[in-house]
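Researcher: Go.
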Amino acid sequence: MVFNYEIKKPWRLEVDFLDVGQGDSALIKLPNHQVILIDGGPDNLVLWRLGELLPFYQRRIDLIISSHYHDDHATGLAEVINRYKVREIIYQADSTSSPIFDTFLNLAQIQKIAILPLKNAVKVNFSTDCFLNLWPSASLGVSADPNNSILAKLNCGQKKFLFSGDNSLKVEKALLKSGIDLNADVFKASHHGSNSANSEAFLLAIKPQLVAISVGVSNKFGHPAAMVLERLKSLNIKIRRTDQGGTIKILGQ
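Model: Structure:
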């Protein structure tokens, strides 16, 4: 399945891994002025971060991708669609949900936002050289798990970004077997840098120059794991963390 978005006046690519505490949210501003939000963090701090990065007159988000239903990824999304005009929402089709995620989807239906429960891989085209590939974990044949997430890969000009949600080692193994091209310049670490993911084999397949870790200060989970940090250092991969440097901004060509 392929979705095509209209082409607009060129703009510079920007990807921001938002400082939302112990949670995940990433803002993508594409060259043709489309705006994408992947996840919404654990609370409404995401609104503050969006206000910092989008001009006051920018009240539109073209696409929201919800990697999975966990509260630390989904809580802020309801207020986002209350404050911004959202064109479309993509989320992983799954029988498992949560009250917070259900509230978000119900609100989206009331607002008549286009909603796609993703079961199979899709490609979303934004321009001739800028597109997203999305793989729900179910399409890889892995067993159900609360951490299973949509894997998103952005190709835009000369830059490639990989967003992995909270996917675990079993999803990484399935991805390695699938033959999917995982190579990316920037990788958003799985599950906040947990050692339940981010295996050496997976990192070697991605070959990232930079790994961005979305994580809260002194969080109770001990994220990111010391073993993962050592693994990244041994592979000479640059590390940036939201708990140490705030929002991580990556600019394209």
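Model: The domain at 2-251 is CATH 3.60.15.10 (Metallo-beta-lactamase; Chain A).
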